[in-house]
Structure to design on (543 residues):
C-alpha cells in the first residue's frame, strides 16, 4: 500500500476513535431515552467502521468478519430490540440522573485524562498500528461505567453496560487486532441473550416495584 | 520581531484590512439575514439592509437617558475602536500582515474581553434593571466560554508551538498531513464558542426584544442614534472577526503569503467564498435550533470546554 494512503487510513482510525469517545460523552449528556438508543446505534456504526479500517490498515482479514458481526448485532439487532422494549414498556420520559449533566461531563473529562495516562505505558508495549487508541478505548469504557453509576433507571444502566462492551471491543481490536473469532462470537451472542434477559427482567422489575428506579431494590429483604 | 518604519505597502495592506472589515461586516449580517429568510420562506430584506439601518441610525439625534454619566457616552466609541483595532491584527488577506507580530491570539481574546467589559459597563451605567440584567448575563456567558476559547487556542497552537496567529497558519498549511482529529473536534468547540460569544441563536436571539430572554439587546436598550449605530456596527465587526479567526485556525488554505496585488485579490476572492459559506452555516444553525433556556447555557459551554479539552488531549494520544 502506498505510504500516503496508509497515513490517511491511520488518521481515519484515529478520527473514528475520537468520534467513538465523543459518542460516549453524548450518551452521558442525552436526556431522552430514545436518543440514547440512537446514539448507541451510532456508536455501533463507528465501531464497525473502525474495525473495517483497522482490518485494511493491518491486513487482517478476520477483522472483516468481526466488522460484519458488529454491524449486524450492534447497529441493527440490539437497537431494534431496545426500541421495541421502550415502546412496550411505554418509556418516553427523560433520563433521571443522580449527578447533573455538566458535573458529569467534568468528571468524565478527569476520567479521560486518567485513562490516557494509564494507557500510555500499555501503548508502548503493543505492536499494532493503532496502539494510540488503546487509551481512547479505555476512556470510553470508563465513561460507560460512569454512566452506569450516575443513572437511576435500570434501562439506562443496561445501555451503559452495552456501551462498555462496545468500548471493550474497540480496545481489544486496537491492542491485539481483536480476540479469537470464537470468543468474539461468544461475546456477541452473550450480549444478545443478555439483552433479552434484561428485557424480561424489566417487566419483572416493573411488576414487583412498579418503577424502574433502582433505589426501591435497596429495601427488599434478603432471606 | 520588531516593527521597522512603516513602508507604504504595509500601510496600504493594513488600511485595506480595516476597510474590508468595516464595509464587509454589515454585508455579512445582511447575507445571514437573506439565508435565514430563504430558509423560513420569507422575503429577504436584502444584502444592504444592515447598512441602511446603520445609516438611518447615524442620521438620527441622540437621546440620552436620565442619570447617565460621561461613561455612557464614552463606551460606544471605545467599544467600536477596540474592535476595529483588532481587525488590524487578525491575518486574513495575508498570512502575516505587518501588524500581526504585535499581537498573538491570546491578545486578541483579551481585546474582545476588553470590548465586552466596556459594553457591560455602559449598560450598567444608567442603572436600569434591563441594562443590569443584560450585562450580568453577558458576563456570565463570557466567563463560561472563555476557558473553552483558550483551550481551542492551545489545541491549534500545539502544532506550531506558538500562539502567534501567522505561525499557527503556517504550521497548518505546510500540508504533509491530511487531517487532524484534534483540530476537527476543536473546530466543533469553536462553533459553540462562536455562537455563545456573538449572542447568536442557541444562546441569545439577536432578533428579539422580549425582556425575559434577551442578553445582548438588553445592554443596548438605552442607546439611540449614532451611539447605537456604533455599538451595532462594532458587534457586526466582532462577528466577522470571529469568523476570520476561525478560518485562520481551521481552514487557512488559499491565503497568500506574499503581498503582491494579484495574490491578495485572489486570496480575498477565496476568503469571500468561505465567508459566504460560513454565513449560510450560521443561518442554518439558527433556523434549526431553538433558543436555550438561560439555565441551560452552562451545559452548552461545558460541552464547548469538554470538546476543546478532548481535542487537546487527543493530540497527544493520536498525533505525536
Amino acid at each position: 500500500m502506498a505510504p500516503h494512503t496508509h497515513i490517511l487510513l491511520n488518521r481515519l482510525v484515529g478520527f473514528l476513535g475520537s468520534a467513538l469517545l465523543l459518542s460516549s460523552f453524548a450518551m452521558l449528556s442525552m436526556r431522552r431515552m430514545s436518543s440514547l438508543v440512537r446514539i448507541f446505534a451510532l456508536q455501533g456504526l463507528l465501531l464497525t467502521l473502525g474495525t473495517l479500517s483497522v482490518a485494511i490498515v493491518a491486513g487482517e482479514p478476520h477483522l472483516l468478519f468481526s466488522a460484519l458481526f458488529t454491524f449486524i448485532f450492534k447497529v441493527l439487532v440490539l437497537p431494534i430490540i431496545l426500541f421495541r422494549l421502550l415502546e412496550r414498556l411505554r418509556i418516553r420520559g427523560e433520563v433521571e440522573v443522580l449527578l447533573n449533566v455538566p458535573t458529569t461531563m467534568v468528571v468524565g473529562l478527569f476520567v479521560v485524562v486518567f485513562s490516557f495516562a494509564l494507557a500510555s505505558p500499555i501503548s508502548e508495549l503493543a505492536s499494532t498500528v493503532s496502539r494510540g487508541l488503546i487509551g481512547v478505548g479505555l476512556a470510553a469504557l470508563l465513561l460507560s461505567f460512569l454512566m452506569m453509576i450516575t443513572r437511576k433507571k435500570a434501562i439506562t444502566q443496561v445501555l451503559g453496560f452495552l456501551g462498555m462492551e462496545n468500548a471493550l471491543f474497540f480496545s481489544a481490536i486496537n491492542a491485539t487486532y481483536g480476540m479469537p473469532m470464537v470468543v468474539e462470537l461468544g461475546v456477541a451472542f452473550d450480549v444478545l441473550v443478555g439483552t433479552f434477559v434484561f428485557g424480561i427482567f424489566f417487566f419483572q422489575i416493573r411488576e414487583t416495584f412498579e418503577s424502574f428506579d433502582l433505589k426501591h431494590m435497596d429495601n427488599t429483604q434478603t432471606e | 520581531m520588531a516593527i521597522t518604519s512603516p513602508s507604504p505597502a504595509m500601510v496600504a495592506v493594513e488600511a485595506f484590512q480595516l476597510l474590508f472589515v468595516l464595509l464587509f461586516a454589515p454585508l455579512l449580517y445582511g447575507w445571514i439575514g437573506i439565508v435565514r429568510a430563504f430558509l423560513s420562506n420569507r422575503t429577504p430584506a436584502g444584502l444592504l439592509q444592515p447598512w441602511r439601518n446603520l445609516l438611518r441610525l447615524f442620521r438620527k439625534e441622540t437621546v440620552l437617558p436620565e442619570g447617565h454619566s460621561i461613561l455612557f457616552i464614552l463606551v460606544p466609541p471605545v467599544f467600536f475602536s477596540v474592535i476595529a483595532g483588532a481587525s488590524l491584527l487578525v491575518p486574513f488577506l495575508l498570512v502575516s500582515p505587518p501588524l500581526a507580530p504585535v499581537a498573538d491570539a491570546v491578545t486578541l481574546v483579551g481585546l474582545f474581553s476588553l470590548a465586552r467589559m466596556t459594553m457591560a459597563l455602559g449598560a450598567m451605567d444608567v442603572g436600569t434593571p434591563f441594562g443590569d440584567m443584560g450585562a450580568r448575563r453577558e458576563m456570565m456567558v463570557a466567563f463560561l466560554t472563555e476557558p473553552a476559547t483558550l483551550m481551542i487556542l492551545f489545541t491549534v497552537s500545539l502544532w506550531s508551538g506558538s500562539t502567534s496567529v501567522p505561525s499557527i497558519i503556517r504550521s497548518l498549511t505546510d500540508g504533509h498531513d491530511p487531517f487532524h482529529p484534534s483540530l476537527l473536534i476543536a473546530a466543533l468547540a469553536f462553533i459553540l464558542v462562536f455562537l455563545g460569544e456573538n449572542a447568536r441563536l442557541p444562546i441569545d436571539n439577536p432578533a428579539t426584544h422580549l425582556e425575559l430572554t434577551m442578553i445582548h439587546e438588553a445592554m443596548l436598550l438605552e442607546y439611540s442614534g449614532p451611539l447605537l449605530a456604533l455599538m451595532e456596527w462594532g458587534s457586526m465587526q466582532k462577528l466577522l472577526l470571529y469568523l476570520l479567526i476561525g478560518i485562520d485556525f481551521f481552514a487557512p488554505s488559499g491565503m497568500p503569503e506574499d503581498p503582491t496585488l494579484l495574490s491578495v485579490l485572489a486570496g480575498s476572492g477565496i476568503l469571500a467564498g468561505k465567508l459566504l459559506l460560513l454565513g449560510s452555516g450560521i443561518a442554518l444553525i439558527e433556523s434549526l435550533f431553538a433558543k436555550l433556556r438561560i439555565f441551560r447555557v452552562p451545559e452548552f459551554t461545558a460541552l464547548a470546554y469538554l470538546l476543546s479539552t478532548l481535542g487537546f488531549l487527543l493530540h497527544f494520544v493520536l498525533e505525536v
About this structure: Chain A has one domain: 3-216.
